[in-house]
Amino acid sequence: MRRAKSEGRFSRSFVVLVRSTTWRCGRLERLIVSYLRGRTWKLGKPQISVKEMLQNFKLKGKRKNDFLDAIRRLERRNIVRILTF
């Protein structure tokens, strides 16, 4: 079975926290921002791969799609930036 090109490309991308605000964000968006904030604060790494975040949150199926949609919503609100390589 082949994966969709957009999903494969999105899993190879990195997420960078631009703003540390969760105003008007849902529960999943707050979890993502707090995870990014903690990783940046503890390790000093400004970017984290989407694949690593999916493994950490242990998401599969519909929850994985909800997670990817939440990252896209955060990018639309200029809270995170998605870097694709």
For the termini, the CA-CA separation is 24 Å
Q: Biggest β-sheet, characterized? A: 3 strands, antiparallel
Task: Give the number of helices.
Answer: 4
Spatial shape: globular
Average pLDDT, rounded to a whole number, is 87
Q: Strand percentage, roughly? A: 5-15%
How are helices and strands ordered from N to C?
A: HEHEHHE
Structural class: alpha+beta
Strand order of the largest sheet: 2-1-3
The radius of gyration is: 12 Å
**Into which percent range does the helicity of residues fall?**
55-70%
Low-confidence stretches: none
Number of E strands: 3
Features of this protein?
85 residues, alpha+beta, 3-stranded antiparallel beta sheet, 4 helices, 3 strands
Structure in a nutshell:
By secondary structure, the protein is of the alpha+beta class. The chain has four helices and three strands.
Question: Could you walk me through the main structural features you see in this protein, from its secondary elements to its overall organization?
Answer:
The protein is an alpha+beta fold and 85 residues long. The chain has a domain at 23-80. Helix content is 55%, strand content 13%. The chain has helices spanning 5-11, 27-43, 50-57, 62-76, and strands at residues 14-17, 47-49, 80-83. Strands 2-1-3 form a 3-stranded antiparallel β-sheet. The two termini are 24 Å apart.
